[in-house]
Amino acid sequence: MPIEALNAPLRNRVRRVASDRPWVWITLGWRDMMAHRAISLSLGGTLALFGWLLSLLLFEAGAPWAILPATAGFFILAPLLATPLYEVSRRAELGQTVTLHQAMQAFRPQIAMMGVLLLIIHLFWVRVAGLLFALFFGGVALPSLAQLPMAMLQSEALLPFLVTGTGFGCLLAAGTFALTAVSLPMLVDRDITWLEAVTISVQAVMENSRAMALWAGLIVLFTGLALVPFFLGLVVAMPLIGHATWHAYRDLVIR
């Protein structure tokens, strides 16, 4: 990347796009996923398996209440976990072949720094969720995992718990989205610092508020639907969103 581009003002590094542009990213992401099915679906399947194991561990640890906030953590950590998919799309754009081993090599020190940041955000969210659960359902004996949803539905504390938790979660998710919208694929593609990548990502979101609001909504929709069949939908949703995120980066950030 030319030195002049690195020193350019932020507004000169971000491109404005049409508000409906995310649909193009989804289309291109689907194309990349179909062209590299073995790698893409195996990475999605690994994430689904991780979700099953995490739920089992939390249930065995006597903390079934943590399954929901931990599951919500997929929205926070997914941009990091999709790093190999960005490398697949990058190589495909250059006309290069790619193996799973090569895709996994996309993890670099600056991406590790982003991982630390996202992990801190995720742990903060889980802690807050635990405090909210204790605040609204404290002193109530926890039922079995099968009975927990019905017990919560019958509780008078459910509505204020959902309103408070959802409101706080949305604010945290919006902030995380702005930080990671294009920063991680940018770190795969360029030799820059994580702080610079985050700054440009936030600028891209601010400069394209309508398009990025639609993009965030599509991510929530696809991921939410993927989580409903007990993480099974992540096999497809995760690689689709990951590949599409690469194309969002290529559209939004000027080389």
Automatic annotation (TrEMBL):
Segments passing through the bilayer: 38-59, 65-86, 111-137, 157-182, 213-241
Family annotation (InterPro entries): DUF2189
Superkingdom, taxonomy of origin: Bacteria
Record flagged with keyword RNA-binding: no
Keyword terms of this UniProt record: Membrane, Transmembrane, Transmembrane helix
Pfam families per the UniProt record, alphabetical: DUF2189 (PF09955)
Protein name listed in UniProt: DUF2189 domain-containing protein
Organism listed in the record: Belnapia arida
